[in-house]
Amino acid sequence: MADILVIDDEKSIRNTLKEVLEYEKHNIDLSADGIEGLELFRKNEYDVILLDIKMPGMDGIEVLDNIIAESSDTPVIMISGHGNIDTAVEAIKKGAYDFIEKPLDLNRLLITIRNALDKSELITETKVLKRKVSKTYDMVGESPAMQKVKEMIDRVAPTDARVLITGKNGTGKELVARWLHEKSNRASQPFIEVNCAAIPSELIESELFGHEKGAFTSAHKERKGKFEQANNGTIFLDEVGDMSLSAQAKVLRVLQESRLSPVGSDKDIRVDVRVIAATNKNMKEEIENNRFREDLYHRLSVILIYVPTLNERLEDIPLLAEHFNELICNEYGMQKKIITPDAIEELQKIQWTGNIREFRNVLERLIILCDKEITGKDVITYSQPISK
User: Taking the complete model, does pTM exceed 0.85, yes or no?
Assistant: First the structure.
C-alpha cells in the first residue's frame, strides 16, 4: 500500500486514476491544479506523484521543479495528452521518474508505479544503512584527549601525508584511519584495510602486492594486491608492527618509488596510494630488537597520532554510553534503555583494559540482561563475564 498524489486538471482522469489505484489498495489524494498539488505535497508525505504537464496557472514542469528542489527522492511520473519527445526528455532531465502519454495505458501505468515504489524503497533502505554506518563510525567524545585527536585529523586529513596511529588494543585506531580517509580529497576512492597480524608471513607479500598465475603452488590465477586495489585511494596497514622484514622492504620501495612488483612478476606497476598505518607496539623497542626497519618507520610516521585509552578519557563515558545504547538497541530492534547516573559512576570506576571494544561489549551485555533501566547495581553485577 502506497500514498499517491494525483495532480491533473481533468476531472475524469483524476476519478479514473483514483478508482483504479484504490482498487490496487493504494491511498490516493487528488488535486485539480499545480498550486493546490504543491500545497498537498508540502503537507503530506507521498510515495509517488502522478503529474499532468499541461494545466492552467502553474504547469506540470514548474510543479516538477518545485518538487525536485524540495524532495528529489519522491518519484514523479509525468502524464500528458500533449506529449512529445522534447517534453519527455525535458521532464526526465529535470528529474522525473518516467513519462506516460494520454490516453493512459493502465497496465503500463501500474507497472511504472510499482517500479517507482521499488526505487523509493531502495532509496529509503540505503538511507537507513548509511545512517547505521555513520553511527557505527561516529567518533564519540569531547574530552581534551579526544579533542586533540579530532583537531589533528582535521588538520592532516586534507593532505597526502602518511600517518602512523598508535594506541592500545580497542582504542579506535581503525576509526581514526577511516576519518582521515573520509575527510581527505580521496574520500570517493577506495579505502582498503589490511590486518598485517592476521595474514601469515608467507602470504603477506602476495596479499599486499598481488601475484602472477603460477607464482606459487596455490596461485591458480593472477590476483591484484591491496596496494593496487587502493590505487588513488587509501590503504590502511593495521598492526603494521607485525609485518615480516621482507614485506617491510617491499613496502619501503612502494613508498619511495610509488611502484610495485607482484609476486612472480618482473613488471612494475605504478600506484598512487595514501598510506595510513597503525600499531599497538612500542616501535622504538621493535626497531632496537631488529624486528622493524627504522627507515620504514620514519617513512610511515610523517604524522603521529596517539589514540588515548578509555581510562585516559573517563569523562567521555556518559556520551559513549548514550551512543552505544542507541546503536545497540537499534540493532536489536529494542527500546532504548534508561542508564541511571549511578550506573555511569560505576562504569567510570572500571579499569578498561580492552578500551572501547570492551566498553561496547559490557553495554551490550547490560542492554540484553536488564529490563527498562540499567542501574549501578546492574553494572557491578554484569560488568564482568558471568562465571559458574
Answer: no
